[in-house]
Recover the amino acids of this structure.
């Protein structure tokens, strides 16, 4: 068993599960080149990913599975409605929106937890956005745990 001064003991099985769970990413885009590039980058940096071509397929997947990050083309049909629905169901879902024109950037600013990247993007840009999204997700999870612990401590 592994011990930490501030945490409960962790058995080897739990430790292996923690090492395996790096994060799951859902990619929504009709462009095969973009999907292949993103898939390669995501696997290279150690995350799992699923790819779909439209928001209907994405909704089906979100009903069946949990994802930590959503990367989608803003210009796909029904993307706005899809994002609203997915964020209502999972408000902590991080999102990276791929846009083609810089003018669209202002349309996307109001979406909570959304980061924007302009197409075409390079390897370094997308890796940085993915890492930032997971960092933000981890911070949100830690804040939630701290709030839960505060509530438990001060309720006595």
């Amino acid at each position: 068993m592994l011990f930490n001064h501030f945490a409960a003991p962790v058995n080897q099985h739990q430790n292996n599960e923690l090492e395996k769970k790096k994060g799951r990413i859902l990619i929504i885009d009709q462009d095969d080149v973009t999907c292949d590039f993103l898939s390669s980058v995501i696997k290279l940096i150690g995350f799992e990913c699923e790819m779909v071509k439209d928001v209907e397929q994405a909704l089906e997947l979100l009903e069946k599975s949990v994802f930590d990050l959503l990367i989608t083309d803003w210009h796909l049909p029904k993307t706005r409605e899809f994002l609203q629905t997915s964020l209502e169901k999972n408000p902590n879902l991080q999102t990276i929106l791929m846009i083609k024109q810089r003018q669209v950037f202002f349309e996307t600013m109001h979406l909570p937890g959304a980061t924007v990247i302009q197409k075409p993007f390079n390897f370094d840009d997308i890796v940085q956005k993915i890492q930032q999204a997971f960092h933000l997700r981890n911070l949100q999870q830690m804040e939630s745990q701290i709030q839960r612990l505060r509530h438990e401590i001060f309720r006595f």
